[in-house]
Design a protein that fits this description.
Shape: elongated
Helix content: 25-40%
CATH class of the largest domain: Alpha Beta
Number of strands: 10
CATH topology of the largest domain: BirA Bifunctional Protein, domain 2
Strand order of the largest sheet: 1-5-6-10-9-8-7
CATH architecture of the largest domain: 2-Layer Sandwich
């Protein structure tokens, strides 16, 4: 078949389509005819797939002719489709039908956001407004970044506080997100504002308020003239924004090798409203935010002069924060797959949910 014969055949196909398309009274019949003409096995479809059979020097002109014919036929079908749709819509309106049954149904939302993820997003949004960047780091960490650079050498007794999962390759599963402190200092230098949300691992006994896998958000701010007052102000602002009201807190001395001085920031337990329960160990308070001023040795390891710059750091427990926000009594539910605490926990009640009412 040469180009002239092809043009003649295409002209016959277009004439046939024009003659038959006006007789179709439904969209379904129009779709059937369209399939017979432009489908892979249709008259025009087969011609479109046969370009390779023509000589190489003729393929360019053949392609132009076929594409032009395809476009004209498509316009014929679209014009008729629009007319039939308007006709059917008018008939439905006359019959009192207001919905189009051919449209897809309403989408169904499957699943929900995990409580820890929801709290993490909220914390990230709060700190972004304060000018903090969001950084990440590896979960498989080296001894240097997890311990040595954070003023915890091999002989330091504080390593007993960090029950660690050691790996066969000499690395470890990070026990906190604090290693990213050093990585961020090395990467950006001062001044520096960043938070580091992420998963941590500790080999410890599991109970209502302790897990071997949990989520933490490290925070770091380094600049000239940073003091404990800045630390307290930021922590109060954070808790107020997360809980949408002022939260009772207390600041007590705490020991962490990478800060000096160090503090434990506790908040009033929202499971029992401070009366005492298993989650807060009957104290009415829950440890939520270890913090302090960055130790000079840590600043030196990060390549920052401690005589010129100071800073504060904190390790916010996102898992415990989610427990307080949603009234979840037992931390173990977070990794359990128990839907009572993972699907809209603020709307649910049950033995593992706090005093909130449904």
């Amino acid at each position: 078949m040469d180009v002239d014969e092809l043009k003649k055949l295409l002209s016959e196909i277009k004439t046939d389509v024009k003659a038959r398309i006006g007789e179709l009274a439904s969209l379904e019949k129009l779709r059937q005819l369209e399939s017979q003409i432009v489908g892979k096995k249709g008259r025009l479809g087969e011609l479109l797939g046969s370009i390779g059979k023509f000589p190489k020097e003729a393929r360019g002109s053949v392609g132009q002719v076929l594409n032009s014919a395809k476009k004209e036929v498509a316009e014929l079908f679209q014009t008729r489709r629009t007319a039939l749709q308007a006709s059917e819509s008018a008939a439905d309106s006359k019959a009192g039908v207001t919905a189009d049954p051919t449209l897809p149904g309403l989408p169904r939302n499957v699943g929900s956001v995990h409580p820890v993820t929801a709290v993490q997003w909220e914390v990230e949004e709060i700190f972004e407004r304060l000018g903090f960047t969001i950084e990440t780091g590896p979960e498989m960490e080296s001894d240097y970044y997890n311990f040595e650079a954070l003023n915890i050498p091999a002989w330091h007794p504080a390593r007993d506080m960090q029950d660690t999962f050691w790996l066969e390759n000499g690395m470890l599963l990070r026990t906190h997100t604090s290693p990213v402190q050093i990585r961020a200092m090395e990467k950006f230098g001062p001044p520096l504002r960043c938070i580091v949300p992420g998963r941590c691992f500790r080999y410890e006994t599991i109970d209502a308020s302790h897990e071997n896998t949990f989520h933490q958000c490290e925070g770091l701010m380094i600049d000239k003239g940073i003091s404990v007052a800045n630390l307290i102000a930021v922590m109060k602002l954070l808790l107020r924004e997360v809980f949408h009201r002022d939260v009772a807190i207390r600041l007590r001395p705490g020991y962490f090798p990478f800060v000096e001085p160090g503090f434990e920031l506790d908040m009033s337990c929202m499971i029992c409203n401070g009366d005492g329960c298993a989650t807060c160990k009957k104290s009415g308070w829950i440890e939520i935010l270890p913090c302090g001023m960055v130790h000079p040795n840590v600043l030196k390891c990060g390549g920052i002069d401690p005589h010129e710059y100071t800073g504060f750091a904190f390790g916010l427990g996102l898992t415990r924060l989610a427990m307080m926000k949603y009234g979840i009594r037992d931390i173990r539910i977070m990794n359990s797959g128990d839907l009572r605490g993972l699907v809209h926990p603020e709307r649910l009640c049950g033995p593992l949910i706090g005093t909130r009412q449904c």
